[in-house]
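[job 4471] stage=fold_predict status=RUNNING
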Amino acid sequence: MLSPALQSILKPAKTTMSLIWFALLVSAVIYPLLAYLIRQKGWITVQFDLEPSLIMIAAVFAAVAGVASLLAGGWVFKPATVQQIYKAKPSLKELARHPHTKAPDEQLLEQLKSLDYNEAFLFYLKTLYMNAMMARWVAAEFIAIIGLTLGLITADFRQAAYFVGPAALLMLLATPRLEGALDRARNWLD
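[job 4471] inference complete, writing structure tokens
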């Protein structure tokens, strides 16, 4: 179980992840409706009869994206990666740097000083976990976008609907669970 202090520091990241996840889930579910409305309003009047082989290719791409969505978390957020970073023993100052700009964050450094080193390191891992989840979400969203594209091209919103179920299921399977993932990662530390 993560300490209350670490849970407090993680709260903004949890909120951000939940909002991104929810927005992507809702957008995937809305795509068939969007395809239908665009066609009903006449904003796109061209219609193509696609060869069944092209629809099969789209389905294969969707299947590959589905597998990638299921596996992406394990590719990025895995024990070997966590242990490799942990063995380098980054200092608290390094742990308190912004993950992208690498700028020092003095306020965060003070918060991390209130934690033991392992918990401060777990905070550092939140970025790795967020990247893993974003990879999963993007792959799931790609499936929904394939469906939207097919729905618009063929003027058949059912084409979009066929891809929503798998995309939504993958998004639901990738519900953000930051605290649980970091608690699991604690067991990976030496």
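[job 4471] summary: The two ends are 17 Å apart (CA to CA).
[job 4471] exit 0
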